[in-house]
Amino acid sequence: MTETLTILTINPGSTSTKIAVFADETRLFERKVDHSAADLAPFDTIGDQFAMRKAAIVAALKEEGFDLASLAAVAGRGGKLPPLKRGAYVVNDDMVEFLRHRPIDQHASNLGALIAYDVAAPLGIPAFIYDAVVVDEMDDIARFSGVPQLTRRASCHVLNMRAMAIKVLKRDGIRLEDANVVVCHMGGGVTATVISGGRMIDVLSDEEGPFSPERAGRVPCRQLVDLCFSKDYDRKSATKLMRGVGGLVAYLGTNSALEVEARIDRGDAEADLVYRAMAYQIAKGIGELSTVVMGKVDRIVLTGAIAHSKRMTDLVVERVKFIAPVEIVPGENELEALAAGTLRVLRGEEAPNVFVAPPRPATAARDRSRMAHA
Ligand SMILES: Nc1ncnc2c1ncn2[C@@H]1O[C@H](COP(=O)(O)OP(=O)(O)O)[C@@H](O)[C@H]1O
Ligand SMILES: CCCC(=O)OP(=O)(O)O
């Protein structure tokens, strides 16, 4: 008989931390801790949230009476590393150093690998990330921004988007490789992608797409430059305005779409307009990505926690249903997808990738200078 593989999965999101423990494919339990805008306000950077999020996880495991000694591996959501391939990566010292000291961007997913490693290392078991948010399969034509100094980067809810697209198509007997699907995940962040031939050939990341509960999304760039050079903002506060206190938080003071809906129900006209604007931008994003495959879209998939909202999905569907049939798959499959990927690695069915950190900028400059003088 083969030994049961027990896996702790950790998904730090912008407005919550979700964990689950799996024994092989069976979920033993799942816990979600919400983090309101007020809870997160005292933290300057995502790194500063490490202790608070880890404590929430440890407390949840304790309440479940779970014994960490039974774990075979820990899997965390993969964060803002340089562009990665799809699939598993071992969390190694290079990855920990990179995420701690020079992540590409501020996002809660950066804590996935860090907390997974922190739990796994003392137990002498491996930690992995799987289908990180920075998986990059974009076509070259999609990389242009308009200035050579700025390159478009893929960053989206990879884990859930692929899992939900596969689920929707499988039901109709279609393989992901044989379809064009536009997927939009609506959570604390909102991102979208167009998957064609099994690859995410273009992505509307959370800095180029719709605004979301806690993110600004695409903003008028000239005004952003002015704002950054005004006396009112420095690097930290301008970054936080884009991610953390943008979107619904900036307009309405909450990162909770549920609370916004409650305000609308009470007759709040401002909340209603902002929420409809978010839906409008989401629909425009889906339209934009549909042009990538010349409008030949087989399915549009709306997913993420906000896809539970009929109010939101109705607002989006009415604008995009002319493009393709719309499938609504609320919630997310991220913890299951993390566990499934990790099981494949532990069973030897998939080889994990090894992350090698790019040289630090100072080291890179020194190396270039050495080469120039060699
Ligand atoms: N049933 C629901 N209807 C509308 N919005 C919801 C619902 N459930 C959760 N949300 C909203 O979804 C957002 C959080 O999405 P989620 O994917 O869980 O978080 P995270 O991005 O932190 O992982 C919050 O704004 C929350 O209020
Ligand atoms: C970086 C894209 C992923 C994202 O926005 O995740 P959350 O919705 O969990 O913040």
From TrEMBL:
Glycoprotein as UniProt keyword: no
SUPFAM superfamilies linked to this entry: Actin-like ATPase domain
GO cellular component, one term: cytoplasm
InterPro entries documented for this protein: Aliphatic_acid_kin_short-chain, Aliphatic_acid_kinase_CS, ATPase_NBD, Butyrate_kin
Gene3D superfamilies according to UniProt: 3.30.420.40
UniProt GO MF annotations: acetate kinase activity; ATP binding; butyrate kinase activity
Keywords per UniProt: ATP-binding, Cytoplasm, Kinase, Nucleotide-binding, Transferase
Alphabetized PROSITE patterns for the sequence: ACETATE_KINASE_1, ACETATE_KINASE_2
E.C. no: 2.7.2.7
One GO-annotated biological process of the protein: acetate metabolic process
PANTHER family: ACETATE KINASE, BUTYRATE KINASE 2-RELATED
Sequence similarity: Belongs to the acetokinase family.
Protein name: Probable butyrate kinase
